[in-house]
Amino acid sequence: MPSSPKTQHRSVRISDDDWADLLAAAKTQGSDRGTVIKDLVAWYLRRPGATMPKRPESGSWKPERPASSEEKTA
Q1: Distance linking the first and last C-alpha atoms of the chain
Q2: Fewer CB within 10 A of the terminal residue: the chain, N end or C end?
Q3: pLDDT of amino acid 69
Q4: Which residues contact 54 (CB under 8 A, 6 or more apart)?
């Protein structure tokens, strides 16, 4: 039997670069994009017990972007 998610799936528009960078940054803290987004929303809405998520140190993560078409042909 497939698992039943506790929350409904939502869609938002985020640039490809930001999406890749968010994954790379979250991984440096042992997290994932979904958790970071949920933590930010809870903090933004002042939910009880929510705290502002810790940001990774600048330069501590490398973007995980696919090579552009120009880089592939170089």
Answers
A1: 48
A2: N
A3: 53
A4: 29
pLDDT of residue 7: 86
- 3-class DSSP state for residue 65? coil
Is the separation of the CB atoms in 60 and 30 below 8 Å?
A: no
Q: Which residue has the tokens 């994009």?
A: 33
Asked if residue 19 has pLDDT above 90, the reply is: yes
**Nearest partner of 37 among 23, 48, 16, judged by Cα:** 23
Whole-angstrom distance, CA of residue 74 vs CA of residue 55? 35
Structure tokens at 52: 């502002």
CA distance 53 to 7: 21
C-alpha span between 1 and 34 (Å, rounded): 24
Dig out the tokens for 42 from the structure: 């809870």
